[in-house]
Amino acid sequence: MAKKGMLEREKKRQNLVYKYNSRRQALKNSIKYSSSFSETSLLKKELEKLPLNSMKIRLRNRCFVTGKPRGFYRNFGLSRNMLRYMGHECLIPGLMKASW
Q1: Where is the protein situated, by its record's location annotation?
Q2: N or C end: fewer C-beta atoms under 10 angstroms in the chain?
Q3: Does residue 70 share a domain with residue 38?
Q4: Domain residue limits at 8
């Protein structure tokens, strides 16, 4: 199980990304289509003023059962350990153990 502080930090990041997403996209589009260098530099300074944790790249995929960040399978939303456990217990429909 992941530490509670890490999970809370991740929730905080998700909220910040959701809150500043439209403003960040608008600034990026303005920078992309700006004509002068001075206008571009002013827009970039505005973009830098936004919180760092409001960037989507800062989010981390985590297992929804254990909260582990490593060994994450996107299709299931689980870490590798929980995927194996739940697969053996037949808790994931359509998942079968491979044998050849």
Answers
A1: Plastid, Chloroplast
A2: C
A3: no
A4: 1-60
